[in-house]
From TrEMBL, chain A:
EC assignment: 2.5.1.59
Keyword annotations of the record: Transferase
Protein name: Geranylgeranyl transferase type-1 subunit beta
Top-level lineage group: Eukaryota
Automatic annotation (TrEMBL), chain B:
Keyword field contains Transferase: yes
Protein name stated in the entry: CAAX geranylgeranyltransferase alpha subunit
EC class name: transferase
Keywords: Transferase
EC number(s) reported in the record: 2.5.1.5
Statement: the UniProt record of this protein carries the keyword Transferase: yes
Length: 336, 337
């Protein structure tokens, strides 16, 4: 059985302290916070696990990662939320590129604030949209921050989710983003990070969810993509052809299937069976059976299962990784 | 308190006790709250971060800064501003790009799942060898350029170590594409498929090497790929990769070949005593038949009725015998015919 109390305790424990082994994720701490909150939300347990004071202090920490304008307002391209506090106190970092927002962190911060019930009043919307506009490449794809050649659909998705949550799409050239995603559709019906690369369940999600949020799902051959996605399932889902199942793809692939209208076609018993194999007896979900749990596989494994059994877990929005109760209250998320 | 570390017989003092760092005031991380996934940093990592922040705050350009970014990135490869800073240091200090590549190679062994290091590698290689400079050279001349020879060697090693490394394959595509190394690619891919016929990354690279160079797919190439794929299917019929490769290739570039060539070849295989039970038992065979008949129904009006019936009975086999977990999908697909 799904052990609700153990999982809630697991996410709470991660919010309180992570081991030194997670140092390598220090710059993506904002996403870890988001995932722990998602893990609580899927059990409708945020209010149960966190006091009002906890929530208040978490909200303050998240806002403390929002990069303010510098003295001569020359850092417009570095605005948005940073991945964590490791970058140092804003006022003391004079070399502007060193104190820099990141589209993925901005996305995670906004989701976390929504989950904590914040009004988003202190979000500097024009600064975020302005920085985002500068991150879209000629190809239509997005970079996470300036001065990098890193660019792939993960950041198209983050841009779309930020635009949707903030209700401002002026930072995205939608046609260019759609055209990029169309080039990511592979010969086998899968979707990947760039033209000619191997189909991958994570990028499938980023592309399908971006299209869903842009209301342009008809831009890809949904029939073929849906088939590729459904073929990822044995009991659990894998992320690529001939790879082993991994708990997080119950979300990446499962949510994509949901958005493409395949809700009734998935094997819910298989999804549950694999989740049970990956569930740790101390709470949390591991990537594969027998490994240690981590916040990403725990939250995403559980959300993946929530699509199968919305009666047992909170119904979640596949396009925004937020409970449907919150997306509906804010009128955000694709129509599904 | 940071401890003195003994490593391979060498004593490493904390930065705070080293003369070289005397002039730097470490800059601590500010935390405003609990309950936000704080990480229990190791003391030496924390100290290095304090010193790195102090250098980055003013944007110091120095060898010690370069060394410190190595140390920090090795433990925290997602530190995106440290990468930006490092790129600037490498550029302004006119560091040896060869050394830089050696370091990135070591890092990719420590952190194979990291995206940033592969992008850094691209940037360094591009600084070493301007893609424009290889224009007009033959393939043999290109692969003889030391930088490219080494990159191909490095990739061959990386893919020996982890044959499905998504980043290594993406980087290989970048290298082949940027420096026009098309002629050698199909041979490399064929070796990788021979090593593991289920390596879907290699099958994908096969498609890339046939199509991405921009040459059109000749009838000879189509015929060759059909024969090649069929041989690989015989080795392991229940292997999704070759089935999706050949269906995808034909669907995009020669759709009529699906029912004119692939269909008779696979049905013959399914009737061949040696392969009969394995072919008929794999969902990929029947799923391929559904795709083929669907295409035929679309293209050939006089065959439409028959093709739809055949597609429908293939869906029956899938839904009732060889793909039970996707039963609902095949019933749905049947209604779409």
């Amino acid at each position: 059985m799904l052990n609700r109390d153990l999982h809630i305790r697991y996410f709470k424990r991660c919010l309180e302290m992570l081991p030194a082994a997670m140092q390598s994720l220090d710059a993506t701490r904002m996403t870890l916070v988001q995932l722990c909150l998602v893990g609580l939300a899927v059990f409708d347990a945020i209010d149960e696990a966190l006091t009002g004071d906890d929530k208040h202090r978490m909200i303050e920490w998240i806002y403390a990662q929002q990069v303010p304008a510098n003295a001569n307002n020359s850092n417009t391209q570095y605005r948005g939320f940073r991945g964590g506090s490791l970058f140092g106190p804003h006022g003391q970092i004079k070399y502007a590129p060193a104190n820099c927002g990141n589209l993925a962190a901005t996305y995670s911060a906004l989701c976390a604030l929504v989950l904590l019930g914040d009004s988003l009043e202190r979000v500097d919307k024009p600064a975020i949209i302005g920085a985002m506009r500068q991150l879209q490449q000629e190809s239509g794809c997005f970079s996470p921050h300036p001065h990098t050649t890193e660019r792939d659909p993960r950041f198209i998705y983050c841009a779309c989710a930020v635009a949707e949550i903030l209700g401002d799409w002026s930072g995205i050239d939608i046609d260019a983003a759609v055209a990029y995603i169309q080039r990511c559709v592979c010969y086998d019906g899968g979707v990947t990070q760039g033209e000619f690369q191997e189909a991958h369940g994570g990028h499938l999600y980023c592309c399908v969810a971006s299209l869903a949020l842009m209301r342009r799902l008809d831009a890809i051959p949904v029939d073929r993509v849906l088939k590729w996605a459904l073929f990822r399932q044995s009991d659990g889902y894998n992320g690529r052809i001939n790879k082993a199942p991994d708990a997080c793809y119950a979300f990446w692939v499962g949510a994509s299937v949901e958005m493409m209208g395949g809700h009734d076609l998935i094997d819910a018993d298989g999804t549950f069976a694999f989740l049970m194999k990956c569930q740790s007896k101390f709470g949390g979900v591991a990537k594969t059976p027998g490994e240690y749990p981590d916040p990403l596989h725990s939250a995403l494994g559980l959300v993946g299962y929530s699509f199968c059994r919305p009666d047992q877990l909170q119904p979640m929005s596949p396009s925004l990784l937020l409970p449907l109760s919150l997306t509906r209250a804010r009128s955000i998320g694709s129509a599904l | 308190m940071v401890q003195v570390i003994e490593s391979e017989g060498v004593t490493i003092l904390p930065l705070s006790q080293q003369d070289e760092w005397k002039d730097v005031v470490p800059l601590a991380q500010e935390e405003t709250a609990t309950m936000i996934c704080p990480i229990a940093y190791a003391e030496d990592y924390k100290e290095k971060m304090d010193y790195l922040r102090a250098l980055m705050a003013k944007g110091e350009v120095s060898q010690r800064a370069l060394k410190l970014t190595s140390d920090v990135i090795e433990e925290n490869p997602g530190h995106y501003t440290a990468w930006v800073y490092r790129k600037r240091l490498v550029h302004e200090l006119e560091t040896s790009m060869e050394d830089e590549l050696l370091w990135v190679a070591e890092l990719s062994e420590m952190q194979p799942k990291n995206y940033q290091l592969w992008h850094h590698r691209e940037a360094v290689v591009e600084m070493l060898l301007d893609p424009q400079s290889v224009q007009g050279m033959s393939q043999d001349e290109r692969v003889a350029i030391p930088v490219l020879r080494r990159e191909l060697g490095f990739l061959a090693e990386s893919l020996d170590e982890e044959s499905k490394n998504f980043h290594a394959w993406a980087y290989r595509q970048w290298l082949v594409h940027t420096y026009g190394l098309w002629d050698q690619e199909l041979a490399f891919v064929s070796v990788k498929i021979d090593e593991d016929v289920r390596n879907n990354s290699a099958w994908n690279q096969r498609y890339f090497s046939l199509i991405a160079g921009g040459s059109s797919l000749s009838a000879e190439v189509v015929e060759h790929e059909l024969a090649y794929t069929l041989e690989k299917i015989k080795l392991a019929p229940n292997n999704e990769s070759p089935w999706s490769f050949i269906v995808g290739l034909l669907l995009r570039h020669a759709p009529a070949e699906l029912y004119q060539s692939l269909l008779p070849q696979i049905t013959a295989l399914a009737a061949d005593e040696e392969y009969l039970s394995a072919i008929n038992g794999t969902p990929f065979y029947w799923a391929t038949l559904v795709d083929i008949y669907e295409q035929q129904a679309k293209d050939v009006p006089e065959k439409q009725k028959e093709a739809i019936e055949l597609a429908s009975s293939a869906c029956d086999v899938l839904a009732t015998e060889c793909d039970l977990p996707r039963q609902k999908y095949w019933r749905f697909r049947q209604t779409q015919l």
